[in-house]
Amino acid sequence: MVHIELPPGCEPPAPRMLKAQRPIPVSIWQRLANEWYYSGHGDPLKLFGTLGTNDPVLPRAISADLLGREPPVTAVHEIGPGNFHVAKAIMGFVRAQAHRNLQYRCYDAHATSYTYHRHRLPTEGFSFMQKGVESFPALTREQEAVHVLCVELFDDTDTEHALLHKGQEQMLCVLPCLPNDTVMESRSLAASQLAHMGDFSQAHALLSDAGSTGLEKLYDADDIMAMIDGMDIERLRKVHPSFLLRLQYENHAFPLPLETSIGKRFEQADAPCLRYVRQVMEYFRKQLRSVPDGNAIGFPVAGVKFLWEMRDHAGARIDLFDYGYTNADLCHRDNPLSYSVFQGQLTSPVNFDLLKYAATECGFDARLEPTEEYILRHTGLDTIPLSRLLSNAEYACDRGKISSKDLKTLLRAFTAGSVLGTRDEDPVDDSHMNMRITYEQAMAFVDMLRGRGFLKQPVDMRRCSYHLSASRQ
Length: 473
Ligand SMILES: C[S@@+](CC[C@H](N)C(=O)[O-])C[C@H]1O[C@@H](n2cnc3c(N)ncnc32)[C@H](O)[C@@H]1O
Description:
The protein is an alpha/beta fold. The chain has 18 helices and 20 strands. The protein folds into three domains: 100 residues, no CATH class; 233 residues, Rossmann fold (3-Layer(aba) Sandwich); 68 residues, no CATH class.
């Protein structure tokens, strides 16, 4: 390929940004963006690492926990299984150690991942249903001792974002902005190209998950922005979801009391549920008062609803693993936003103390701990995810002394051969960055960085993911 260097001053003009006319509450935009993101095609989890995409240590700990329970757990219901790594690993561990098949039932709001991975999934004991977490409690109401597992689910689901500004309650909104040179194909056009290449199941998934077909055509930035301005969701569903990759966001906040922003989400609830929501909202209010003015935190609407609807399930046990924060973390936060954007998908780290409070209000016995403590308890391994160590080391390093690329190379070399567990399937690029090393080894790496004079400040070694267990006798 010939690369032509343009003389200074002849660079093509940077695209102009088209801005939406009105900000949209983060909660609404997150629900839409994630629905579009996960109903694309291919393997949606291939683009970013999650707690469960390929870490072999966490499923090992969960299996040891399951195998140690009395009476024995015979069925697991996993909601939001992503690329099914956790499902396959747990089924494999239980088979190897207890010589029996665990009944493993997966539920996901989207079938895209399932369509992509279905040929590599176990056949015995495994099942998949395209059902969202919202419908799970009703689906399992008659069942006793339901065991639920959710790994990185609630950071993706319905969350309201609020903040205090000079003591006034406000709701966080985003203003989507799109470069004016954006051109995007319709889902139908992309699906017909997939079908031409012989990939009929992916073509089908691209259309059926979005519940729409539509014309084979191209959309430009003006078309897409007009749909966003009109909140024309049905038409936006027809655009290929990769338009999300081009969006950028401005953040705005508007005065709105929690009773309206959050209360509105429970409008249809009966009196006992409203009492519960009021209690949880008061707890949230206290949390808001403990963070610096202008810092937003999340109210996990989907999680609060889920716990309420699971309260009558006799003998239920719910294990949630996710990125998020506890009350103790709130005062350390240096980011005033309560959401982040990865590959177009919006994620809201989970407000764990609030969910623990909600679980207790629903009558569950609730326990909250860092994921690493859970892993240590069940495997004896004191670990840290490599990706976490890398991002914290990047933050603490003096960029003038070591580039991000060199830091990554150094970490790779330092940990070569000592990443815990093995890749069992479909390694993605950089996949071992989502795996774990021992805490001791991580400290040795940090010492080495310090010794070479690369650090401008200490590396934060706090853990950032948590495990909430909620059980009911
Ligand atoms: C961040 S991924 C995590 C996947 C996997 N558990 C992991 O840790 O790699 C979130 C998963 O939840 C699913 N999901 C998103 N919203 C959902 C909902 N409302 N109900 C059920 N599943 C949902 C997505 O399709 C995806 O599989």
